[in-house]
Amino acid sequence: MLIGFGIMLATFVAMEGVAWGMHKYVLHGFMWFLHKSHHTRHNHAFELNDLFFAYYGTLAMLFFIFGSEPLDYRFWIGAGITLYGVAYFLIHDVFIHRRLKLFGKTSNVYLKALNMAHKVHHKTPGKYGSEAFGMLWVAPKYFKSAYDIVQKQQNEKGGTVHYKRT
Ligand SMILES: [Zn+2]
Ligand SMILES: [Zn+2]
């Protein structure tokens, strides 16, 4: 069981690498025709790009099917892929793109850095020249800017309180 959880966590971490590589070399490569829908402004509820959820979902399901009865390591790989899919959906689709209005603004430096990095990714509408292809892992420079912004916001808040007191 403990080994199972270890495999699940390792898969989760590995999936960030897989997602990064897929995004950089495949989605912004020969599968741009699907991913393009995610880099174009629109007001539809779904995008062709959402097909990738079906792809990872199917992949996880296959691991579950072949890894149960008897339960083996493949089951835990399936669990890791599923966990990563849920985290990706919550961060990328709900928190960053606000497809569901669940979360408000955050003053969490990590979440702010993720948001900034991904907005920079979206600055480039085309297939080439984009950066920040990862999701949960962000380059340190974004942490630095996010940290500065949060500090500034907190100073401003402090300033208002001080102003009210006098
Ligand atoms: Zn992209
Ligand atoms: Zn996005």
From TrEMBL:
Entry superkingdom: Bacteria
Keywords assigned by UniProt, alphabetized: Carotenoid biosynthesis, Membrane, Oxidoreductase, Transmembrane, Transmembrane helix
Presence of keyword Membrane: yes
The keyword 4Fe-4S is assigned to this record: no
Parts of the chain that traverse the membrane: 6-27, 48-67, 73-91
Entry similarity comment: Belongs to the sterol desaturase family.
Protein name from the UniProt record: Sterol desaturase family protein
